[in-house]
TrEMBL record:
<keyword id="KW-0347">Helicase</keyword>
<dbReference type="InterPro" id="IPR027417">
    <property type="entry name" value="P-loop_NTPase"/>
</dbReference>
<protein>
    <submittedName>
        <fullName>Helicase domain-containing protein</fullName>
    </submittedName>
</protein>
<keyword id="KW-0547">Nucleotide-binding</keyword>
<dbReference type="InterPro" id="IPR032438">
    <property type="entry name" value="ERCC3_RAD25_C"/>
</dbReference>
<keyword id="KW-0378">Hydrolase</keyword>
<dbReference type="Pfam" id="PF16203">
    <property type="entry name" value="ERCC3_RAD25_C"/>
</dbReference>
<dbReference type="InterPro" id="IPR050615">
    <property type="entry name" value="ATP-dep_DNA_Helicase"/>
</dbReference>
<feature type="domain" description="Helicase C-terminal">
    <location>
        <begin position="1"/>
        <end position="150"/>
    </location>
</feature>
<dbReference type="GO" id="GO:0005524">
    <property type="term" value="F:ATP binding"/>
</dbReference>
<keyword id="KW-0067">ATP-binding</keyword>
<dbReference type="GO" id="GO:0004386">
    <property type="term" value="F:helicase activity"/>
</dbReference>
<dbReference type="GO" id="GO:0016787">
    <property type="term" value="F:hydrolase activity"/>
</dbReference>
<dbReference type="InterPro" id="IPR001650">
    <property type="entry name" value="Helicase_C-like"/>
</dbReference>
Length: 150
């Protein structure tokens, strides 16, 4: 599903955001994208963030280290694959990361990938209620409704 979404937004700068390091490493391999996590040295983090800012890197996989204090204004798409349970603050930070105005005026997309009939579905509903109360609008889309570009 994440690969489909990244391909759908091939012309955008995409952040794939999650909490589970093994999952993020697998996604980095699948997407052929660098992964930034807590063990990534600061110099390497800054190099990758700068390459993303300038468009040299179109997709970046990040752990919770990118939740705060990282300036990535051109990120137009965020794909959240895992979060800290029902953390409303974390989701709001991640959403805010892509909603910043873009230099070229384009819009932003925020996706949360959730497996049906799991505890994650309950956590996602909790976060969704909070953001809906803040005035954000959600559209729930089934994976089958997003075509595989391949």
């Amino acid at each position: 599903m994440v690969r489909r979404l990244v391909q759908r937004h091939a012309d955008d700068q995409v952040l794939v955001i999650g909490a589970y390091l093994d999952q993020l490493d697998q996604l980095g391999e699948l997407l052929d994208a660098p992964v930034i996590q807590g063990s990534t040295r600061n110099r390497e983090r800054e190099r990758l963030f700068e390459a993303f800012r300038t468009g040299q890197i179109r997709t970046l996989v990040v752990s919770k280290v990118a939740n705060v204090s990282i300036d990535l204004p051109e990120a137009g798409v965020a794909i959240q694959v895992s979060g800290t349970f029902g953390s409303r603050q974390e989701e709001a930070q991640r959403l805010g990361r892509v909603l910043r105005p873009k230099a070229d005026g384009r819009g932003a997309h925020f996706y949360t990938v959730v497996s049906r009939d799991t505890i994650d579905q309950e956590y996602a509903a909790h976060r969704q209620r909070f953001l809906t109360e803040q005035g954000y609008v959600y559209t729930i889309v089934d994976a089958d409704d997003i075509p595989d570009p391949a």
